[in-house]
Amino acid sequence: MDNKEILVINGGKPLEGEVCISGAKNSALPILAACVLGTEEIILDAVPKLKDVEIMIDVLRHLGSKVEYIDEETVRIDSSNINTCETPFELMDKMRASFVVMGPLLSRFKKAYTKAPGGCNIGARPIDLHLKGFQALGAESMVNDDEISITTNGELFGNEIYLDFPSVGATQNIMMAATLAKGETTIENAAKEPEIVDLASFLSKMGAKIKGAGTSTIVIEGVEKLTGARHTIIPDRIEAASYMIAAVMTKGDVTIKNVIGSHIRPIIAKLIEMGASVEEYEDEDIIRVSTNHRLKPTNVQTLPYPGFPTDAQAQFMALMTVCDGESRIQETVFENRFMHVEQLNKMGAAIATSGNRATVVGVDRLHGASVKATDLRAGAALVMAGLTAKGETRVSDIYHIDRGYSDLEGKFRKLGADIKRVKVK
Ligand code: UD1
Questions:
Q1: Catalytic: 20?
Q2: What is the pLDDT of residue 217?
Q3: What is the pTM of this model?
Q4: Measured between alpha carbons, how far is residue 385 from residues 49, 192, 220, 379, 389 in Å?
Q5: For a tag on the chain, would you pick the N or C end, based on fewer CB atoms within 10 A?
Q6: Which listed residue (20, 35, 85, 120) is catalytic?
Q7: What is the average pLDDT score of the chain?
C-alpha cells in the first residue's frame, strides 16, 4: 500500500475520445478463487491489472497454486499441488473479497481455515450468509476472534438454501462449495449480478453442472471433479459506468469500448432521463455518451442487480453535485456508504444526509480542494469531481483507487484530462 502518492487534477476540460474498459474486478476475483477447484491448467484472459487481483494471486500462491502471467492480461494457473487449506489473515484483512476462496477450498478439500495473528477481531465481519450456506451443505463453522474454521466429516451434501439477502459473495461461495458436493444444491434468492453468471460460465467450462445463474434460483448438481479451462473475464460494468458519468460531468463526448449495455441498464436509463445522449452499438460492445449542457436532477435508489448498483452511487452523487436542481439518493445495500459526502462538500458541493438518504443540490461549479479517497468508488467520484472543478484538486489515499481501476489516470489523460500522479513526502 503506497499512500505517499496523490492525484493532482486541473479541472475544466471536457473529456473527448475513446476509452477501453478492462476485465471486471468483481468477476476476476471469484474466478481466480475458483481456480482452486481445478486439477488441471487454467488460463484466464482479460485479467485486469489491479491491486485486488494481485492480492488474490498472492492468496493462490500461498495455498500452493502456480500462477504466472503469460501475457499482459493473461494468467496461467495450476492448482494441482495445493498444499494448505489455510489462508493467512493478513490477506483476508487486506481484501474482504479474499473470503470467496473459502467455498472452493471447502469444496475440494472439505475444510478451510483462516487465522489471525495476534487476535484481530475477524468474527464481526458480515459473513453469516456464507456460513449459513456452508452449514446447510453439512459443514461446521467455528468463528472466534482470531480464527474461522470450516470443517466437515469428509463430505458435503447438496441442500436447499434460502439467502435472507441476495449477497453476491455468499452466492458465489455457496455455488462453488456445492460444485463438488454430493447431490443437488438449490440457492434461492441468489444474487443475479453479471459476475455471478460469469463465474457460473467459468465453472461450467471446468465441468461443473450449474443452471439458473443470473436468476434468483441457482441449481448446482455436484460432480466428481473439476478440470482445466480457458476463460475471458467480462468487461467491468462499474468502470464503464464511471467513464460514462465522467463524460457527462465534463460536458464531453466519450466512446466507451468493451462495454456490455445490458449490464448497465440503470446507468444508461438514468443518464438518458437526465438529458444525456447515449448511443449504443451493441454488436460492437460500444457506447457513446455525450452532452453539451448541464443535466437534469434525478432520484436514485441502490439495489441488488438489476437495480441501480451501489458501486456507482458515489460517482452518480458526484454527477448530481453539478446538475441543474435537487437530486436524491437512497443507499439500501451498504450501511455507511456516504463517506464521500464530506469530501465532495469540501469541493463546494451541497449535499445533506440523513441516515441512508442524501439530498444533493446542484451547484454552478465545484472548486478544487485537497480531498481524501475514503474507499475505492469514493476515490473515483472525487477524481471525477476534480475533472469538472475549477482549479486544482489533490486526491490522497489513492491506493483505494488502485485496488479497482486499471490505469485510471492514464485512461483519463488519453481522454484529454489534466491529471497526474505525484509522489508526496
Ligand atoms: C460485492 C462486490 C462489491 C459490491 C457488492 C454489492 C465483489 C468482490 N464485491 O461485495 O463491489 O458493492 O457486491 O453489489 O464482488 N451481507 C450480510 N451477510 C453476509 C454477506 C453480506 O449481511 O453474509 C450484507 C453486507 O453487509 C451488505 C450486503 O449484504 O450490506 C451486500 O453484500 P454482498 O452482496 O455480499 O457484497 P459483497 O459480495 O461483499
A1: no
A2: 98
A3: 0.96
A4: 24, 31, 44, 10, 6
A5: C
A6: 120
A7: 95
